Amino acid sequence: MPRIARALVSVSDKSGIVDLCRALADMGVQILSTGGTMRALHDAGVPVTAVEDYTGFPEMMDGRVKTLHPKIHGGLLALRDNPEHMAQAEANGVAMIDMVVVNLYPFEATIAKEGTTLEEAVEQIDIGGPSMVRSAAKNSRHVTIVPGPEHYDRVLDEMRANDGETTLETRRELALAAFEMTCRYDAAISAYLREQFRDEPGFPTVIAPRLRKVADLRYGENPHQSAALYRDLSAHEPGVAGAVQLHGKELSFNNYLDLTAALESARDFAEPTAIIIKHLNPCGAASADTLAQAFEDAYTADPVSAYGSVLGLNRVVDTATARCIFSTDWLEEVIKPRFYAESGLTDVTIISAFVEAIIAPGYEPEALEILKKRSKNIRLMLLEDFAPEGRRQDLDMRAIPGGMLVQGRDYDAVLPEDFRLVTQARPTEEQIRSLIFADRIAKHVKSNAIVLAQGTHVVGCGAGQMSRVDSAIIAARKAGDRAMGAVLASDAMFPYRDGLDAVACSAIIQPGGSRRDDEVIAAADEHGIPMVMTGMRHFWH
Description:
By secondary structure, the chain is α/β, with parallel strands linked by helices. It folds into three domains: about 5-195, Methylglyoxal synthase-like domain (Rossmann fold, 3-Layer(aba) Sandwich), CATH 3.40.50; about 235-385, AICAR transformylase, duplication domain (Cytidine Deaminase, domain 2), CATH 3.40.140.20; about 415-535, Cytidine Deaminase, domain 2 (3-Layer(aba) Sandwich). It contains 19 helices and 21 strands. It has a six-stranded mixed sheet with strand order 8-13-12-11-9-10, sandwiched between helices. Strands 16-21-20-19-17-18 form a six-stranded mixed sheet. Strand 17 (about 450-455) and strand 18 (about 455-460) form a beta hairpin. Helix 4 (about 70-75) runs parallel beside helix 8 (about 130-140), helix 8 (about 130-140) packs antiparallel against helix 10 (about 170-195) and helix 12 crosses helix 14.
């Protein structure tokens, strides 16, 4: 293409714009501009022509109409190698515009401010900006679109190296960035207006995810799969994608999944709580008066599976807790003796205290230094906004080939007043507390899920089996002697009594709803076990 002779510049974010336009002017480029951008350039001594002087049509309606003019869009859309286009342009006094430097009104920043009114938000819906961006990007064969300050240096360097021209490859890359920008912008507007205009809750007819790539990952779930991390710009919470990594190796695809499972589980509890995740399931979980005690109780649940785990801690990590994590001495002197004594599973081999990653709302300085010294590879993730209330508004979206499944997120949990006692035996106050804890953990275990708990710590977990009785058998095997006296939580109904018969527990919590509920209740009465039904299922596929 010929060297750039004319550029239209109109930006909301004025970072670097004076330096860019001064450099363009030095290369002989005529600058057209509007409003605040024009004033900033004029004040800086950069030669600039007002768009209204160029079009012969005044800026009007408080700036709502200024660049929506045939001399602007004709100059952007004309195909330079089409004689008919060029003849029509000449006949109508339309000069070619070779570059557009535009970024859009700060709609997202405006609606993020507390107290923003609908009228204020609507005024930040840019019309002329996206129109110019789209026109320039559509004609990227001939026009260079520059949709943000992050592109300024590249464009200038290329023009200097190519006698005032840009390459087709660069123009295509910038056009793609421009359309990605307008797509994200329109998605933000539609999402906001949906909330404002719709009185009744419901799923949107069209979902336009606003996802920005944060990083390329080494690989996906397996080394032969490529992967990347994207952040959802429309989410009401930062989540793991918005956490800050303080230390350790690069996070893997599987790390992000496990950290999410750890976060979702840990923030479900008000008390100091430690969650130990392995392959998305809590193999250990506990609440206690202190975080250090919760971590010890959680680790004792299944120290075999805890090897290579990810931790979710819902309190600032203190020194006492940090001294336990990744500690061989602690494993040998505390965990092994306690596990063998309580479970009776003395033939189980416990390898080491290896931890892959931790997510927590904070770290005491000394605790952070202890963890860094313990391992150069352990990933330490900081998420200060650990459990924002706004997260309840976000949707759970899961991709399937050819589409997306969307549902509300499962943040509901039962309380004692939700219980329906269905057996002759009644649970004690201590059992009720334990049942609430076990039920909340079962929500985060892959279905079919069976959780055994003593007090407020897990002692056995059966996850993801095709039959509920198999999950019950696995949970009992993991618990060993600790199954005696433990309470049992099931994420869904018992289809038959065999699941109850497989575990010698002390109390049961389950949703109910089976055709054979009467048989299951009769089995609980035979065993003298109190059982409550909640009516709330927590399948997690």
